[in-house]
Amino acid sequence: MAEGGPYAPAPAPVGPEAVPAPAPDGGAAPARKLPRAVGVALATAGLLAVTATSAAVTVAVGKPDARPAVVAGAAGASPGVSPSASPSASASATATAAASATPTVAPPTAPPAPKPASTVKGSVSGGKHDGDLRYFLLPIPDGGESYGPADGMTMTDDEVAANFGNQDGIMRILGSYGYKDAASRTYRTADGKAEVTVTLLHFGSTGQAGDFARNYTMKLDPIAIDGDPNAHGYVHKPKQQAYTGSMTGISSQGDVQYTIDVDVKGTPDKALLSELMKRQREWLSSGG
To answer: What is the pTM of this model?
Structure first.
């Protein structure tokens, strides 16, 4: 996800792929995530289109220290001749071997503490979502680790504007679509290979959410999203496999527009994004 500025109005925003940042020095800590910057343009049909651009975050890959194996030997011993051990040395070696052969028993591991039950509630009927918007965020899979509160966060207007690059008039533009509120959550998958950010924007009607999703485009290579008929997606393939690749899926269900960003090391596999988009759509449709 990269910094960006406003883009000039255009009927169909198209631009080059974002350039990945240079890899950090070997001693520097890997960069975290850069905020996504989104520009705003006016579509020819009169609908407001939102465009976004993102760039990869470099990932430093270290190598294990190469340490040659050391073979212990008796100093001064002639080839083919084994030095004789003293009685005390033999006894010490026997005692050490006996001690090493003694089995050890580790104390029992305490069972993991149960996850606290969430008090966030919501309901959906006829595509209309009520209650706390955080309730409709895609649940974190087993073993996943949340960045921040496990229930996710309700976003302030300033945070929403920052998510769109603090473009002039962005909240007014969102208001023209009947924007109400927003929620977001970022988590890391259990295998540590992917970072997923889910963002929900709540609008006044199904039609407004759908219009916003259709006009939300990014200056990246488009990809198809399987399992979500209303979705479209984009991918950033890093120049090197040691860099971070990213994917973004955009869609809507009822009066909620949702965006899922996935960051992985190397070239992303769109199957992961398709599965997440499908699950998020189902969650918004049923309310759990």
So the answer is: 0.64
